[in-house]
């Protein structure tokens, strides 16, 4: 028995036998779609106003700007899982991908970086160092957890999968799309501003066919369901977004042009994808006070941040011991600590107090002579003059 066997798939969809999946792709029956995992909607405490909820929902699974996301490709013979099929047979599926497949994912990460954002992607070869862990389990679809959700999983768990051949023409868009989910972007065709009226039964039926074989819940979650308006960029709908699926004709009833022709995004990042990702992830020198400011023990600093803004502090401990970090005031914020290892930023810990009456707080052991970076991003702040941070 191989050691990864306990890692059952997160979504209970039928895994296709590779030869069947290959046949489906060769014959171009329909097309493969990305399927996200279902998550319960967040329930806020009474008294959290709708404006505050909107700001929290928008940023709740986003990273702080300046984050370096490390990605790792599964590479051991034991990385994979046994899958039992309905005919009683069992087959071992590896998560390890060929070099040509990995190259497509690397290139896709460069495409996001080339927009000029406050997020970097760096490949690492030890799964313990990675926030993003990528498998190529054939027949298991393409998916990623959304934004910071990926931190909820241990080092032997995939946070992203590519279940079909990425070297086919245009398939780099699948890799760009999944990385978009890791950046916290949902599906654009679920934008409530899209005004798409589905032929729902036709959609359920189309997705139930190979190669996707989705059950109704998966189709509802990934296509039919409209997102809360504050989880997407609320102003307009972008049918050319990389986060938008293509749809063949017969699935959309309205708007008319898509009913007649189907809908095919232009491919690659759209102009709006680029402007939106830059808004959410400004490069760090554009955020307040790059990293010039040092946070000193027992000295509180007024944050003076508006919604979406971020401040960054260096922390240079003078002794090796446990330190407490906390925000003060009534704001909602996320506070994250990185260690600077010779210019390489490693996520150490973080806390998110959004929607709660508590403050962001963590206690962590810091090493004298090491360099750390504290980043604080504000979701909501009704009293900017009364919100502060302190370490002690
Ligand atoms: Zn997707």
Concise structural overview:
By secondary structure, this protein is an alpha+beta fold. It is 20% helix and 23% strand. Strands 4-1-5-7-6 form a five-stranded mixed β-sheet, with helices on one face. It has a four-stranded antiparallel β-sheet with strand order 10-17-12-15, with no helix packed on it. It has a four-stranded antiparallel β-sheet with strand order 11-16-13-14.
List keywords for this structure.
binds zinc ion, Jelly Rolls, Collagenase (Catalytic Domain), 8 helices, 4-stranded antiparallel beta sheet, 20% helix, alpha+beta, 392 residues
What does this structure look like?
This protein folds into two domains: 278 residues, Collagenase (Catalytic Domain), CATH 3.40.390; 102 residues, Sandwich (Jelly Rolls), CATH 2.60.120. Helix 5 crosses helix 6. The protein has eight helices and 17 strands. The strands form five sheets. The protein has a five-stranded mixed sheet, with helices on one face. The longest helix is centred in the first third of the chain and has 15 residues. The protein has 392 residues and is an alpha+beta fold. It starts with 17 loop residues before the first helix and ends with a strand. The N terminus is likely disordered. Bound molecules: zinc ion. The site of zinc ion has 5 residues, from helix 4.
């Amino acid at each position: 028995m191989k050691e990864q066997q306990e890692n059952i798939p997160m979504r209970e969809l039928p895994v296709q036998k590779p030869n069947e999946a290959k046949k489906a792709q060769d014959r171009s029956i329909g097309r493969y779609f990305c399927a996200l995992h279902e998550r319960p909607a967040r329930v806020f405490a009474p008294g959290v106003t709708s404006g505050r909820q909107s700001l929290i929902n928008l940023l709740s699974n986003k990273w702080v700007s300046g984050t370096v996301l490390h990605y790792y490709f599964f590479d051991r013979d034991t990385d994979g899982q046994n899958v039992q099929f309905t005919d009683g047979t069992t087959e071992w599926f590896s998560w390890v991908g060929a070099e040509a497949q990995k190259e497509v994912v690397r290139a896709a990460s460069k495409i996001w970086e080339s927009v000029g954002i406050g997020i970097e992607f760096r490949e690492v070869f030890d799964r313990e160092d990675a926030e993003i862990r990528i498998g190529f389990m054939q027949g298991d679809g393409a998916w990623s957890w959304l934004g910071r959700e990926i931190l909820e999983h241990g080092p032997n768990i995939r946070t992203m999968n590519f279940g079909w051949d990425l070297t086919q023409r245009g398939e780099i868009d699948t890799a760009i799309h999944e990385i978009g989910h890791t950046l916290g972007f949902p599906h654009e065709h679920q934008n409530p501003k899209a005004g798409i009226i589905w032929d729902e039964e036709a959609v359920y039926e189309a997705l139930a066919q190979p190669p996707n074989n989705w059950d109704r819940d998966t189709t509802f979650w990934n296509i039919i369901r409209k997102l809360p308006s504050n989880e997407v960029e609320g102003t307009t709908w972008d049918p050319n977004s990389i986060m938008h699926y293509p749809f063949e004709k017969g699935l959309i009833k309205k708007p008319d042009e898509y009913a007649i022709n189907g809908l095919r995004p232009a491919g690659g990042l759209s102009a709006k994808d680029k402007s939106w990702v830059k808004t959410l992830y400004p490069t760090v020198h554009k955020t307040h006070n790059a990293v010039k400011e040092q946070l000193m023990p027992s000295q509180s600093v007024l944050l003076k941040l508006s919604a979406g803004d971020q401040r960054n502090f260096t922390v240079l401990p003078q002794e090796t011991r446990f330190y407490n970090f906390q925000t003060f005031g009534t704001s909602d914020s996320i506070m994250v600590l990185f260690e600077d290892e010779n210019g390489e930023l490693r996520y150490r810990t973080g806390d998110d107090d959004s929607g709660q009456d508590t403050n962001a707080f963590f206690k962590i052991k810091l090493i004298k002579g090491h360099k750390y970076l504290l980043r604080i991003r504000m979701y909501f702040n009704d009293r900017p003059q009364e919100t502060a941070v302190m370490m002690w």
